[in-house]
Design brief:
globular, mainly beta, single chain, five-stranded antiparallel sheet, about 0% helix, Jelly Rolls
């Protein structure tokens, strides 16, 4: 079975600063490999961005996962784009969630590319 490459985007996020917005939730029957994630500042001044992985899955003989930050309050200058992944890959399991926050509401444009394994 093929493992399709996919893209999820938000023109602006989050709707409210300080309330991380869900970008993606891994669906039943899937595992995904996050290949790239960018934050673009669409505001007229610098902002900070945060990307969280919310996970409560447990791998065999391991402690249950908790929320972790990929980046927290990373500066994104106005008109600039920040690549979060920088060649790394992250595996997400069913129910895991990618959330985005920004110091100013509706000022980060977000793209995430991934491969879905079903």
């Amino acid at each position: 079975m093929a493992n399709p490459f996919k893209l999820v985007t938000r023109d602006v996020a989050p709707a409210s600063s300080g309330s991380p917005e869900t970008l993606y939730t891994v669906q039943t029957g899937s595992t995904i490999v996050v290949l790239g994630l960018t934050l673009a500042n669409v505001h007229t001044t610098s902002v900070t961005g945060t990307v969280q992985i919310v996970s409560t899955t447990t791998q065999t003989s391991q402690t249950q996962n908790t929320t972790a930050h990929l980046v927290k309050d990373i500066p994104v200058p106005n008109g600039a784009t920040v690549e979060i992944m920088a060649g790394n890959k992250i595996i997400l399991n069913v129910g895991d969630i990618v959330k985005i926050d920004c110091s100013v509401a509706d000022k980060l444009s977000v793209t995430m590319s991934y491969m879905e394994i079903t």
